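forwarding from the other thread:

> can someone predict this with NAP?

sure thing
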Amino acid sequence: MESILERSTGPVGVKKQHKFLIFTSAVAIGFLISSIQFTKYPSIPFYSSLVVYLPFLFAFFTLHFSSITMAAAVSAVVSLSSSKSTAISTRTSLVSQERVSFAKVPYYKNVSSSGKLFSIRAQITTEAEAPAKVEKVSKKQEEGVVTNKYRPKEPYVSRCLLNTKITGDDAPGETWHMVFTTEGEIPYREGQSIGVIPDGIDPKNGKPHKLRLYSIASSALGDFGDSKTVSLCVKRLVYTNDQGEEVKGVCSNFLCDLKPGAEVQITGPVGKEMLMPKDPNATVIMLATGTGIAPFRSFMWKMFFEKHEDYQFNGLAWLFLGVPTSSSLLYKEEFEKMSEMKPDNLRVDFAVSREQTNDKGEKMYIQTRMAQYDKELWELLKKDNTFVYMCGLKGMEKGIDDIMVSLAAEDGIDWMQYKKQLKKEGQWNVEVY
Ligand SMILES: Cc1cc2nc3c(=O)[nH]c(=O)nc-3n(C[C@H](O)[C@H](O)[C@H](O)COP(=O)(O)OP(=O)(O)OC[C@H]3O[C@@H](n4cnc5c(N)ncnc54)[C@H](O)[C@@H]3O)c2cc1C
Ligand SMILES: NC(=O)c1ccc[n+]([C@@H]2O[C@H](COP(=O)([O-])OP(=O)(O)OC[C@H]3O[C@@H](n4cnc5c(N)ncnc54)[C@H](OP(=O)(O)O)[C@@H]3O)[C@@H](O)[C@H]2O)c1
């Protein structure tokens, strides 16, 4: 604020000297006219000299007001281009944006309209205080986030350090946890993804395979704590096509079959949607289906296993994980360990769809499990420092919306509108596929 005011006093100060000169001249000329008229033409009434005197007064007042409008115009231009003022960053974006849009349009129109002097002045008062364009301060850890350091044309060539199956033998499908070297060259954050270019040629076009994205499953420090590795959690895609043939997904099978020591082409890092909240006291609700757990393992390692000078988690982390069978539960032991370490800061709820049902005998999907805590979840969602993250199967998004619609309606709130607001504030974050 100070900087805006300081800058706006410059032009006003210069005009003050002009005004003083004009005012003194007007008084002197008026005095001269009146004296001449009084001594030379005493018969003419004194007030008639005002006919000559008034134009000077008029000139004075016109210049006086135009100097104010000029000063305000300059101050508006300065404040609109300034984005470094400390006052600006402390204002809420909503209020400031309204002010800025008000200032830009009617302000200049009125300046050229000479008959509206007082309305211009009224606006100037508001304008002098109005901050310029306010950049929204993100509630997420966005500062310094790197994206697309490595692109498909020049990928980072990494090496597989470890690759292990983390689902039971009787699980429907296999999921693998794998660790790759980065030597610190891929500066990713919790919640980002990387691209993997599988070896080989796409038989459909004879060109190298395109990259596939994978959510990073390790914290920024990596599984070995030295910021030199990146980990993934990958489900091997195998399905039967319409002709009854078994089809294997190209990249997931390439990754799940990787042996330690093998080279892998990596791109990225990418993505900002799933970055963690800044507030270490936040409530973080994590909704995952299957390998959608990846970014949350990354969050939770940072929250529970690591010590950071600028981040010590002391809020509530609440994980909901949906999987088909108990043999497909991912990273269960790690979460149990975290819970032992900080029982007051972590809640974990599993939804095992092919083994559990709710009271009505319905399949236990993640949204079915969430519905058991509906009131509690809704109360948390009303808090300014609650952040929801959703990752995994696309279908889960609608299921979760359905339970939220009825909960919000009980409070007379339109869920879709409310969700929009939460999204805008970075409190509702979705990455489903
Ligand atoms: C941001 C993001 C993050 C992701 N993170 C992860 C992650 O952490 N872990 C993970 O495992 N995956 C993740 N994925 C998915 C991943 O990118 C790949 O899509 C997945 O591994 C399959 O790739 P693929 O090369 O093995 O299969 P592809 O060879 O690319 O084959 C996939 C194609 O097969 C077809 N197909 C698939 N299933 C069937 C079916 N049942 N019936 C008929 N046709 C079918 C579809 O056309 C589909 O597009 C993520 C995706 C995105 C966008
Ligand atoms: N960032 C991302 O975008 C990202 C990251 C990681 C993974 N993914 C994607 O997420 C998916 C995870 O699949 P997966 O094979 O790893 O999971 P999975 O092991 O098959 O588990 C998925 C679970 O979700 C259930 N489910 C199915 N339909 C659902 C619905 N409409 N609503 C709620 N739950 C539902 C499944 O139940 P049933 O099978 O019993 O019906 C199962 O319990 C993959 O498509 C993967 O590509 C995306």
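The longest helix spans residues 2-40. thats all i got for now
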